[in-house]
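Archive record:
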Amino acid sequence: MTFTVAIVGRPNVGKSTLFNRLVGKRLALVDDQPGVTRDRREGDAYLFDCRFRIIDTAGLEEAFDGSLEARMRRQTERAVEESDLVIMVIDARVGVMPIDEHFAKYLRRGKTPIALMANKCEGKVGEEGLMEAYSLGLGEPIPFSAEHGLGSSDLYDVIKEHMTRAVEEKASSDVFEKSEPIKPAPAMAAKAAEAKAAEESDSEDDEYPEDEFEGFEDDGEGRGPLQLAIVGRPNVGKSTLINKLIDEDRLLTGPEAGITRDAIAIEWEYRGKPLKLVDTAGLRRRSKIEDKVEKLSASDTIRALKYAQVVALVLDADGVLEKQDLTIARTVIDEGRALVIVVNKWDTCKDKDAVMQRVKDRLQTSLPQVKGIPVVTISALKGHKLNKMLDTVFDIYDVWNIRLPTAGLNRWLAELIERHPPPAPGGRRIKLKYITQARTRPPTFAISCSLPEDLPASYTRFLENNLRETFDMPGVPLRMHMKKGDNPYAGKKKRN
């Protein structure tokens, strides 16, 4: 049983600061500007010996239309429904606001237990607000300072109490279910079995199986789940793509550009293979970024890209591989990540042949260092070819993890040198003696070379391209290092 705690409250009361303190990392963006958090973010939290799941939510707004604020409110309401405990946070320095009273009434109407926290209680400034918090009718408030961690023991007592109560209720419920099993009538049982068999048969024929996805563990090889970062310019459909994959309105979407701010990681599974999907904020040119929060979002996206294993660069079919797209692609390759080009909104594209030719031409001219980058066309809104995209992601992930035998590599090197020997700048012959794969992810090779400083970069690129073609490693960055071999006679005295 996973105990889940949701943090709610009006904007700018310190919810994200509290989230970061409980997870022990700076995952959520924090700024003095209200409304920084939009999507709900989940993380594994700990407080002394308590381990639980925590959800950071957007500020509760009194909006009930189709606006962005209303969509944020619905995400918060969903987090409250899914939680075992809700921590409502107020700003003790400001005191109780009318909107705090409004949402305290809303929370009281629900079934989820509530704990009231008066944040920013360090010093005497928050004492008056702490006393006002009693008027909300949510019990005794917890005096706390998310910035400094003051009041952690009081918060621990509250969480521990509710966690123990939830475990006891779960245990008694299981005992009751086991002691009084309900058996359906034979005819009903037969119909239920037929319905279940038909449902399983239908799910096997579905293009996108709707399995019940659970948490994931390490795959047994020490690598864990595949981390897939979804990146691209603003408003190309990144969040819509993830929502369609997991078949849930988990992330905020809409016509407004730049809705996503935090890099949100979602645990998922595709055909028995564990995944961690990371939705990121859209990346614009640095020269166009002036807002402080957008700068923080861009930094968070770059951080997510660096920690990913495969990166899906989502493009708009109406404007593929523009200058900013190529900048993002080069960053992915420079970081040694595997790259998949995903052309979204393909169903609205009028001249498909011309768009695909443009993609191939731009990749060939602007990214010649990595040949064979896979390109997949999809429609995130309609769910077209999403399974093909994920199959491509896992295929290139396998290439990114490839391990080549040393004997085969040295046979390849010997044959290649015989046909195309390295140049001899200044009349000095360069010897390539030995090659080995130093590591994977990305594939990295070391060649023992007599004069590595004199070997032209063009010959190194020739080696990389031939190695990629010979061993079938398209689309992933390769690293090739020339290492000068040790002189076996160095340091030995000359005999008379």
Observations:
- The first strand starts at residue 4 and ends at 8.
- The domain at 226-400 is CATH 3.40.50.300 (Rossmann fold).
- The first helix runs from residue 15 to 23.
